[in-house]
């Protein structure tokens, strides 16, 4: 059974869904596939 | 139902007249030709035994033409120099009758109509019509007239349609059976002209001692005529008994070997299986056409006599031709025969197979290209083909070294071929469909795996196009969804400036970090921020380490933004770099934020101002461009493969729509 076209279908569907979510949540495919977790503390700034 | 029986004047056996329209009948017992005149019948001599044939029709067969039912009441076997055929007399009821001719596996249904008064020769015929039938001089005069009037290529107009003479031959009645609407005296001669009209229509003009007769009709396939009560065929139908002409083997005049015809009555040429001599089998007396100089041995994939079922029709392989074009390429053509479906060809080259059937009408043309089933065909090749080897039997008088002009048009898996014989006006169109080699091998029980086909054949379906068939509908769908999401998203972005500040920077001095006043990132969901830096640096750089700090959670995002700009003069003014830069911060949750900015710059940089701006809810365009890559990569890959296959198909072809690669090189060299 050929899987190329089903795979293309799956990947494209996932891509469109991801882009829909990314567009809503301001995600960037380049920088990360999910919102980067904030460093939990600003204490690292204390030395500045 | 009409039925009348007369005693045969010769033997006394009952001669039935089942049709009111017929005037003569052949006694089934002694083969006397009986003609009825008023209430009496008259003996008109004996009819010869009809040559054996494998026609599925018989007296009593019923059929339908254009919604009108008919019954075959009799037949006459008509011969000409190169063969013979059956003309069946069809009673349509109500005094209407017509003719059903069997010709090369197709059927020509025609009706006699009054010839137009302005038909060439009509005036002369008027002067001769008073002379009695059977007058030999009259017959000769009529034949002479027919020869002079019927010239190949001449056009006539009948019933608002144009017809062109394609073939003219002198015909002769060889024999008859059943009832007929005329008296089929054996040896009755006529000049017969076959004319082709629009579509599948045809006309037949006959010049004989009976005058000038015109028949108009249409060529049909077996299935169109909805025949019933067909003749059981020995060797083809289980319950068949030989009741009409035992098919005796023919003997080769060269070597005496016996060969049994597989399409008796239709075969015009046969190759002696023993010595390879080409025999004329169009008449019971077999004649030698060509003496085989040497027996060639060509390996046949489908042996002569092998039967197989293709497209639910059982065929027997009865002949094989090897042909060669002017480039020396050779291909094989297997002639298949079915008593009901007629003839087909299996053409093979390089492991590719195509099932071909002769068209009963020339395809219409749109913009110069022939069209079949609404599909335009593109010219692929044009040249001459020569017969270099024959085996088996054929429905025309095939000749070794015979040349034909062949033009091929393609619309894979279809191929359309037109063949013209240089000496004849006849043009033959045929249509073929590519066959999976394994289907052909299975159909004819060839006990081995077919070899892998070589190259890209002219009508081979593009396998990459087949693979991409589903893709062709998916790609526009996903492209639409993709653009809708991206452009819809871009249109709904706020692009709101939420912070703007500017500070001074002195190169070489200590520049303390700047902590900005808090600003609000509004909204209901995470969003992308764009932080823009602007500074009019000259021949230097300025960088800023920016921390985006959530005022509530103290969570921080560390960023780097820098600008550099250089300019000068070196054989002209130059500049590089920019006074602006920006960085995207994805997925920032709504809330209060402030910036901690730590600037640094090129030592020695004079005092300069830098400005930082924060814009919330911006479009991440990189998503659009990067998303396009996986979306289009596979379709582009498929397209490249498909295109490469088409290039291979058309390579070394004079009619190729593709520019040869060599011309690319020449073009680039010219440039």
Describe the structure.
The complex is a heterodimer of chains A (48) and B (671). By secondary structure, chain A is an all-alpha fold. Chain A contains one helix and no strands. Chain A is elongated and about 35 Å long. Chain B is mostly beta strands. In chain B, strands 7-8-9-10-15-14-13-12 form an eight-stranded antiparallel beta barrel. In chain B, strands 22-23-24-25-32-31-30-29 form an eight-stranded antiparallel β-barrel. In chain B, strands 34, 35, 37, 38, 39 and 41 form a six-stranded antiparallel sheet that branches. Chain B is elongated and about 140 Å long. Residues 667-671 of chain B have low confidence and may be disordered. Classes of the chains: A mainly alpha (48), B mainly beta (671).
Q: What does the secondary structure layout of this molecule look like, with pairings?
A:
The complex is a heterodimer of chains A (48) and B (671).
Chain A: H1 4-25
Chain B: E1 4-7, E2 14-17, E3 24-26, E4 32-37, E5 40-46, E6 62-65, E7 68-80, E8 83-93, E9 96-103, E10 106-113, H1 122-128, H2 136-149, E11 155-158, E12 161-180, E13 189-196, E14 201-208, E15 211-220, E16 250-251, E17 258-259, E18 269-271, E19 278-280, E20 287-290, E21 307-310, E22 313-325, E23 330-338, E24 342-349, E25 352-358, E26 364-366, E27 369-372, E28 375-376, E29 378-394, E30 403-411, E31 414-420, E32 427-435, H3 437-443, H4 463-467, H5 469-491, E33 496-505, E34 514-515, E35 519-521, E36 527-535, E37 540-550, E38 556-569, E39 573-578, E40 580-588, E41 591-601, E42 608-616, H6 621-650, H7 661-670
Antiparallel strand pairs in B: 1-2, 3-4, 3-12, 4-5, 6-7, 7-8, 7-12, 8-9, 9-10, 10-15, 11-12, 12-13, 13-14, 14-15, 16-17, 18-19, 18-29, 19-20, 21-22, 22-23, 22-29, 23-24, 24-25, 25-32, 26-27, 27-28, 29-30, 30-31, 31-32, 33-42, 34-41, 35-41, 36-40, 36-42, 37-38, 37-41, 38-39
Count, helices of chain A: 1
Span from first to last CA of chain A? 61 Å
Largest sheet of chain B: 8 strands, antiparallel, barrel
User: Structural class, judged by helices and strands of chain A?
Assistant: mainly alpha
Q: What is the radius of gyration of chain A computed over CA atoms, rounded to a whole number of angstroms?
A: 18 Å
Could you estimate the helical fraction of the residues of chain A in percent?
Answer: 40-55%
Would you count the extended β strands of chain B for me? Answer: 42
């Amino acid at each position: 059974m050929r899987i190329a076209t089903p795979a293309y279908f799956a990947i494209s569907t996932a891509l469109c869904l991801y882009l829909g979510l990314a567009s809503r949540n301001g995600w960037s495919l380049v920088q990360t596939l999910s919102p980067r977790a904030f460093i939990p503390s600003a204490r690292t700034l204390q030395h500045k | 139902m009409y039925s009348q029986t007369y005693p045969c004047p010769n033997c006394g056996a009952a001669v039935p007249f089942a049709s009111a329209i017929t005037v003569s009948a052949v006694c089934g017992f002694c083969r006397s030709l009986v003609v009825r005149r008023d209430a009496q019948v008259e003996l008109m001599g004996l009819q010869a035994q009809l040559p054996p044939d494998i026609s599925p029709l018989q007296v009593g067969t019923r059929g339908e033409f254009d919604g009108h039912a008919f019954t075959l009441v009799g037949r006459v076997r008509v011969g000409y120099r190169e063969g013979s055929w059956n003309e069946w007399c069809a009673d349509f009821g109500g005094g209407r009758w017509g003719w059903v001719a069997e010709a090369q596996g197709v059927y020509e249904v025609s009706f006699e109509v009054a010839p137009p008064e302005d038909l060439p020769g009509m005036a002369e015929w008027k002067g001769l019509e008073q002379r009695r039938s059977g007058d030999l001089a009259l017959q000769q005069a009529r034949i002479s007239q027919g020869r002079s009037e019927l010239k190949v290529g001449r056009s006539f107009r009948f019933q608002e349609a144009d017809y062109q003479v394609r073939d003219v031959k002198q015909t002769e009645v060889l024999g008859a059976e059943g009832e007929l609407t005329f008296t089929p005296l054996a040896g009755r001669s006529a000049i017969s002209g076959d004319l082709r009209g629009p579509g599948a229509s045809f006309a037949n003009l006959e010049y004989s001692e009976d005058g000038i007769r015109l028949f108009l009709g249409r060529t049909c396939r077996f299935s169109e005529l909805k025949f019933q009560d067909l003749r059981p065929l020995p060797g083809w139908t289980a319950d068949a008994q030989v009741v009409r002409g035992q098919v005796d083997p023919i003997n080769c005049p060269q070597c005496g070997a016996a060969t049994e015809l597989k399409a008796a009555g239709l075969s015009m040429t046969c190759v002696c299986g023993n010595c390879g001599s080409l025999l004329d089998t169009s008449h019971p007396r077999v004649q030698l056409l060509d003496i085989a100089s040497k027996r060639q041995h060509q390996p046949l994939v489908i042996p002569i006599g092998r039967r197989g079922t293709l497209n639910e029709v059982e065929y027997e392989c009865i002949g094989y031709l090897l042909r060669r074009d002017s480039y020396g390429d050779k291909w094989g053509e297997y002639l298949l025969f079915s008593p009901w479906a007629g003839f087909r060809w299996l053409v093979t080259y390089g492991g590719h197979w195509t099932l071909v059937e002769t068209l009963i009408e020339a395809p219409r043309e749109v913009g110069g290209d022939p069209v079949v089933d609404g599909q335009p065909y593109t010219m692929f090749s044009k040249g001459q083909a020569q017969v270099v080897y024959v085996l088996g039997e054929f429905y025309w008088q095939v000749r070794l070294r015979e040349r034909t002009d062949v033009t091929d048009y393609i619309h894979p898996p279809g191929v359309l071929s037109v063949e013209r014989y240089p000496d004849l006006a006849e043009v033959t169109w045929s249509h073929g469909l590519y066959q999976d080699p394994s289907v052909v091998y299975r159909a004819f029980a060839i006990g081995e795996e077919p070899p892998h086909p070589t190259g890209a054949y002219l009508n081979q379906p593009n396998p990459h196009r087949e693979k991409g068939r589903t893709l062709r509908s998916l790609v526009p769908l996903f492209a639409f969804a993709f653009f809708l999401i991206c452009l819809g998203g871009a249109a709904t972005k706020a692009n709101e400036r939420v912070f703007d500040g500017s500070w001074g920077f002195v190169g070489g001095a200590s520049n303390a970090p700047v902590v900005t006043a808090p600003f609000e990132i509004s909204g209901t969901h995470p969003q992308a921020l764009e932080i823009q830096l602007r500074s009019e640096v000259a021949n230097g750089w300025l960088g800023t380490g920016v921390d985006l700090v959530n005022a509530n959670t103290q969570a921080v995002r560390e960023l780097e933004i820098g600008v550099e700009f250089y300019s000068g003069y070196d054989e002209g003014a130059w500049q590089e770099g920019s006074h602006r830069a920006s960085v995207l911060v994805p997925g920032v949750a709504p809330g209060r934020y402030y910036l901690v900015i730590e600037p640094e710059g090129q030592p020695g940089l004079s005092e300069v101002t830098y400005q930082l701006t924060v814009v919330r809810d911006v479009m991440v365009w990189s998503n659009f461009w990067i998303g396009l890559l996986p979306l289009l990569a596979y379709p582009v890959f498929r397209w490249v493969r498909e295109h490469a296959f088409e290039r291979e198909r058309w390579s070394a072809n004079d009619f190729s729509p593709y520019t040869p690669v060599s011309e690319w090189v020449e073009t680039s060299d010219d440039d």
